[in-house]
């Protein structure tokens, strides 16, 4: 049976779950700081990933193939990049709204297309490249601060708030770069597992990645920041949900990466910006800018072109 289409529903589920995870982590920033909030998804997510793999192998009767040294290197590099990306994203959220930060990180597909071509030789089609450009333009417009198109007496856009705002942009774009590198690395690692089925390969790669991330973070905290480890432990109730929903989101990202290259997956994943708009408005009570309709429209056009190209 041909499962090449499965990346579409998998990506939509992943994007929705990721929005919930990001919102949960943002709520943890005040209590645990950006680093602590970033770490909980890995420390509390690893057991859930191992549980997913255990259940899948028990139901299917298959075990994952041994991971090659090359595959382990890809997964380890991607895991470190993802940790950095999450920390940078949460740091940006302290300076910009939840929605604006998510929009900044979604410049990722352009970078993924470049990294995918450089590292994996995956060249996007003309329609896919156009979809990426349209959607990324929409994200760029969405990320503009309110009042950007209004000018004050100095001729400067009133929406620019100085150094703090510029730092948020730099942090958001750096986060996107790290997320792009992690997506390429995880896809390469999944392909190195090479079966026995694409589902088992994806879940095995997820379990390996989260286990490595949890072990790395635990060792670093034990050596250098035990107070932060105690803080994370004290926040176990919200952290447990963040870990579960993070592992759940990653499960579907990895399933999508198992059957489709990273650039189309992450381009469709831009629907997370729409989900983030809803969360930003109704949960965090953050006002919308007038540019959002135009930006959202470009994203919808890009996604439609991607799915019909």
UniProtKB/TrEMBL annotation:
It comes from the Bacteria. One of its GO terms (cellular component) is membrane. Residues 6-143, 168-307 form the EamA domain. The keyword Membrane applies. The chain crosses the membrane at residues 38-59, 71-93, 126-148, 168-186, 198-224, 236-259. Keywords: Membrane, Transmembrane, Transmembrane helix. PANTHER family: ACYL-MALONYL CONDENSING ENZYME-RELATED, SOLUTE CARRIER FAMILY 35 MEMBER G2-RELATED. This is Multidrug DMT transporter permease. The lineage of its organism: Bacteria, Pseudomonadati, Pseudomonadota, Alphaproteobacteria, Hyphomicrobiales.
